[in-house]
Each structure stands twice: as C-alpha cells, then as structure tokens.
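Sample pair:
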Amino acid sequence: MAEWRKVAKAFAVGDGHISEKEVNVLRDSLFADGKISKSELDFLHELKKEAKTHVKALDQLIEDCEKAL
C-alpha cells in the first residue's frame, strides 16, 4: 500500500468516525486534478468499510466519484 493511503486512512478513520470536515478534505483532494480514478474510488470504499460510523456526506462523495469515473 502506498504511504499516502496509510496517512489518509489514519486521518479519516483514526477515531472510527468519518466527519463532515474529513469528507470535505477528501473531496477537495480527490477532485483537485479534475478526474477520479478507480483506485481513488476503491480507497473511499475501503474507508467506509473500516469506519465504525460516517456522515451522509461520505455516501454523497462516493456517489459523485462513481459518476465522475
């Protein structure tokens, strides 16, 4: 696994909950280059699976990334 993935997972799922603020940071980072890769989408699914709880905004981000793929 690439190092950025470990850091991002620790940031987003470190406390077991993915917050609105964390989703906003993920959204800004993922859409920064104007495109979404399958790897990035897979990463979001991993985050969702590993989190104990998450805000609805994560589901919306995943949906937006699926549409952009």
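The chain has a mean pLDDT of 92.
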